[in-house]
Amino acid sequence: MTTFLGMPAGGGNLTGEPFPKAAREALGNAQLRRNLAKATSTIRAKRANVVGELPDWAQLRAAGAAIKDEVLADLDEHLVRFEEALTSRGTRVHWARDAEEANRIVCDLVRATGTREVIKVKSMATVEIGVNEALAGIGVHAVETDLAELIVQLGDDRSSHILVPAIHRNRAEIREVFRRGMPGVDPGLTDDPRALAEAARKHLRQKFMTVDVAISGANFAVAETGSLVVVESEGNGRMCLTLPRTLISVVGIEKLVPSWRDLEVFLQLLPRSSTGERMNPYTSVWTGPTEGQTSHVVLVDNGRTATLADPDGRAALRCIRCSACLNSCPVYERTGGHAYGSTYPGPIGAVLSPQLTGVDRNPTLPFASSLCGVCYDVCPVAIDIPSMLVHLRERVVSAKRTTPESTAMRALAWAMSDARRWRRLLGLGRFGRVASRHVPLPGWSTARDLPEPPKETFRDWWGSR
Amino acid sequence: MSARDEVLARVRRAKGPREVAPVPREYRAAGTRGPGDLELFAERLRDYHALVRVVAADEVASAVAGALRDRRAHHVVTAPGVPPGWTAGWVAGDATGREAQGPTGPVGPAGPTGPTAEGPELSDPAGRITSRVPLGGDAREALPAGRDQAGAHPPIGDVREVRRVGGGDAWAVLREVVEAADAVVTACHVAVAETGTIVLDHDAADQGPRLLTLVPDYHLVVVRADQVVAGVPDAVAALAGVLTQTWISGPSATSDIELERVEGVHGPRTLEVVITR
């Protein structure tokens, strides 16, 4: 067992109800399951298609994993280099230990501009820290400009997918959300996706042209040059990055890549894994303030150093938020993202969230998996999620001290370590046949079928030949 | 301790001994795949529903003119460094045979015929944009009878320039002009055959600031054959040191509603590419 150095855990939107409880509710929603099954099967097929086109996918994947490991191995040096590069260009760099501090920084910067409204580029880090709620607290309305994030926001809902936050909503539901939540929308709005997108375009264009402060995240941050990269599809990112005079970018410290050249790997891995496209419609790169803007970067820890401190868990920080693991996961497909209770759902969420918050605040997530291994196969940076889940289960169990399960397992280990003891225990199997029908094992048998011990063990049969 | 020092101290405590293997770069690296395949590039662009015209190098002007005419563009802006020859075709190639007349000079807030815009930034030559806006009523009346009424061609444009660097008034003026435009013409820095991607360098005069290609609904890009590279690593190599970039792969699109692709959410709804052989 590794020693943990007691690095402070992260806060924000990373915990929810225990997974088994939340999942049970989700499983009762047939509409949700239909929406999810349709969406994830579509995107899985697209991904497989474009990944299959590249003869060097395996090599790109190996390079992607290695580059991220290289960043993590010297993260302090890369961060300092990144800060220097940005500062020399005129961007102000801020550091935040946790979600609360990051929000305070963003709120102070926004307050200084005097605006009552900000526009936002879709960003997981800002959802994680809950910046919208923090801004609301100082009377500033944050307008989500990604279509799916807008649907979630107008519906007073929560995101359920890293890439397609409104994946749990179908077109009819979205029309209702727009009719109720979008000011001035045509009451005759149909549920045709084109009409819905057009309604959003009109609604948001007015925001783009008038709101003067934007908040973004970044998909990648290049330590060598100070460049930030936003990968998107709709063009709302370009609007937010270009039009307002003040740009605040919230960046998790694990988003760094050492050099500009490294993007040659990630700009191939990300779009193909994420939306199943050869390339996403728009990628914006900027290096310091551009075209007269004032630019700020907020570097956020919020549990990332705690994750880094566990050598067996730190690979979760390689994640580039593509969501291929969500789309492939049989558990996610049935429960949806809300059941995970965290900004990061699905298999990656099951390993990332407990590490960011500490396993004590997310003890059920490492068990939210059947360990089938598909998530590892599709991960573009080769995060071995199944092994990490097992590792985290061990941490959860050891953190919980003694439970009936751990006592039983310890007793079993003691019996199995000696042939004579084991033989005697197997003899008790006959007693177990009777007992298993009458003795409930709560906590174990709720999620598992208890096999009935056989009438005759193999040893008995072999001995009687 | 400041947040900065504390986060860095945490990283140093957490990272442990360095035991990382060098990055294996066994994928198809830059320069290993020869030049970009123009056929493939055109095919990939069409996959994204971009419009594509492949022409000889000396046919750029007529291709641009044809595209703008088919688009029925009225207000066209171009990046300042775009060779005048490209858009000259739109005017000179018009069936009326007339050259653009109207004033040539900076556009001010007063509109197409207004005086030079105020603000010191406007005189900075680094950020010039040429804007073509239609002539006023007089010019229209001068058209040969029948042409205009038939609606076969957009009005003849005249050439204007707007310059901007920095914020303030110049930015507002630029926005006003660009918001009024219904088409924009630029060059590009590099293009990727395998992914059908075009990359703009916003510090290059013939590509212009980001706003220019963001707001108008139609973006026409001219790509030279020698700018088309095979794969993403080739493009990344060509873009080293370029500070502000936009990578464009087809028109703006969303799949947020039941993963059904809808084009033209916020960015230009139509992308047209003229490739010169």
TrEMBL record, chain A:
GO annotation, biological process: lactate metabolic process
Is the keyword Ion transport in the record? no
Fetch the PROSITE patterns from UniProt. Answer: 4FE4S_FER_1
Tell me the ranges covered by the 4Fe-4S ferredoxin-type domain, including all copies. Answer: 316-383
One GO molecular-function annotation for this sequence?
A: metal ion binding
PANTHER family linked: LACTATE UTILIZATION PROTEIN B
Supply the name of the protein.
Answer: L-lactate dehydrogenase complex protein LldF
UniProtKB/TrEMBL annotation, chain B:
Database matches in InterPro entries? FTHF_cligase-like_sf (IPR024185), LUD_dom (IPR003741), NagB/RpiA_transferase-like (IPR037171)
Q: Which residues form the LUD domain?
A: 173-275
**Organism the protein comes from:** Saccharothrix texasensis
Query: Which superkingdom is the protein from?
Result: Bacteria
State the organism's lineage: Bacteria, Bacillati, Actinomycetota, Actinomycetes, Pseudonocardiales
Protein's recorded name? YkgG family uncharacterized protein
Transmembrane residue ranges = none
Region Disordered, residue ranges: 91-160
Q: Which residues form a coiled coil?
A: none
- Which Pfam families does the record associate with it? LUD_dom (PF02589)
